[in-house]
Amino acid sequence: MKQILGLVSVVVRDYEEALAFYVGVLGFTLVEDSEVPEQKKRWVVVSPPGSATRILLARAVGAEQESRIGNQTGGRVFLFLHTDDFARDHARYTASGVTFVRPPREEPYGTVAVFRDLYGNLWDLVEPKPGTDPVFPKKTGSVPGLRNVEIKARVSDLPAIEARARAIATEGPVDLVQDDTFFACPKGRLKLRQFADGRGELIHYERADDAGPKTSAYVISPTPSPDTLREALVRAYGTAGRVRKKRRLYIAERTRIHLDEVERLGSFVELEVVLSEGESEASGDAVARDLMARLGIDDSQLVSTAYVDLQAQT
């Protein structure tokens, strides 16, 4: 059995002012805006960037619905917005005039502050602690547990794999366009990843070139200016390759399932099993093997090297 929460409704006063805030200020993506003439309304759906979660902006009709605007939970926090960089988003929201009603604080589950949207609804802005949320990779190698067990496989029928992934996923899909530039590096690999929305991440990782499940240790540093950072790194170190791909992301419990269409290479599946602090590699290996079987991937399809190395071989 599988169920997902398809939409969460936020009652709003006016479509345009709501879009100006959620898209213009918070930076959410407009997923859909279509007329529903028979009901004299619009179907307006937004989503946080890179998220599978969808929010329906529902215009209030009548006094009863209007009384709920800004207070759908009786004064309690209504929605929880997880982020991969609390400092970045807190600074950006503050600069854009968003009101934080509770200042940043450290909790056992992560860094959190509470802000109020344009109608008065309360939101938690949360950066989860490393290892507590598989959607967000960790950002600092000084924190224990920054490890994955990974596999990569070349596949000929990606739609069939996706059908199986969809059946076992707990979240997703999320569609991503990624442009990775690799730089000369004496230890491990160093790459700058740029997303379609202009964000970037500088990533260093160390991983053995083995065909089966393998452990990867990594550090991720977000950047709002990937173009200038790329130029600086190219000048300093030179490039070692560039990989462009379209990725569809599913989450199965603590495992990220990547369905990749890689420029010049074709179709691949990656599994990244997030290891908790102190967890053995053997435990993650078992999870990866189980998912391989459930997705219909066998050892003959496994690839030992990174996409950038495969491109160099073609």
Question: Can you tell me about this structure?
Answer:
The chain has helices at 15-22, 62-66, 86-95, 158-168, 226-237, 281-295, 307-313, and strands at 8-12, 29-36, 41-47, 55-59, 77-82, 99-107, 110-116, 122-128, 147-154, 171-183, 189-195, 200-207, 214-223, 239-252, 255-262, 266-275. It is an alpha+beta fold and 314 residues long. Strands 9-13-12-11-10-14-15-16 form an eight-stranded antiparallel β-barrel, surrounded by four helices. A four-stranded mixed β-sheet has the order 1-4-3-2, with helices on one face. A four-stranded mixed β-sheet has the order 5-8-7-6, covered by helices on one side. Strand 14 and strand 15 (255-262) form a beta hairpin. It folds into two domains: 8-128, 2,3-Dihydroxybiphenyl 1,2-Dioxygenase, domain 1 (Roll); 147-313, Hypothetical Protein Pfu-838710-001, CATH 2.40.320. The radius of gyration is 21 Å and the shape is globular. The protein has seven helices and 16 strands. The longest helix has 15 residues, at 281-295.
